[in-house]
Amino acid sequence: MFRLQVKSHFDSAHFIRDYKGKCSRMHGHRWDIEVCLQGKGLDAGNMLIDFSIVKKMVKEYIEERLDHYVLNEQLGEPNLTAEFIAKWIFDELEGSFKGAVRLIRVCVWENPDCCVKYSPDMKSINEDK
Predict the structure, then answer these.
(1) Which CATH number covers residue 45?
(2) End-to-end distance of the chain based on CA atoms, in angstroms?
(3) CA 18 to CA 58: how far, in whole Å?
(4) How confident is the model at residue 44 (pLDDT cuts 50, 70, 90)?
(5) What is the total count of domains within the chain?
(6) What is the pLDDT of residues 53-70, one digit of tens each?
(7) For residue 30, what are the domain limits?
(8) What is the CA radius of gyration of the chain?
(9) 10 Å Cβ neighbour count for 64?
C-alpha cells in the first residue's frame, strides 16, 4: 500500500457566529491543507499518481473556490470552522481521483499549532500521526 501526501494553502477570512470569543469577529488565516491519497498499484512510471497532477488539481480547486473569500459567504455556512472546511474539502475532492487511487484524509491547519484531520475512516485519521 502506498500513501501520497500533497500540501497547499490559501488565504481567506471567516467568523464563527454565536461563539464566545474573538473568533466571533471576522478574521483571516493562511490555511494550510494536506491531502492524503492511498493506493496499491503503481503505473508504468512506478508512480501511484504524479505529484504534479495532484498539486495542480488541489491548487486550482482551492484558488477557484476558497482563496481570498469570506468563507462563510462562499460556502454558505454561518459557523465556519476548521472542522467544517476539512470535511467540505474532502467531500468536494473525493470523486476527483480515478482508478485505484483514493482520497483518504484531508488535514486543515488554521495556524502552525492547530489542525483538524478529517477522514470517513477512523483508521486513516490515526495513522501518520
Answers:
(1) 3.30.479.10
(2) 17
(3) 32
(4) confident
(5) 1
(6) 999 999 998 999 999 999
(7) 2-126
(8) 15
(9) 8
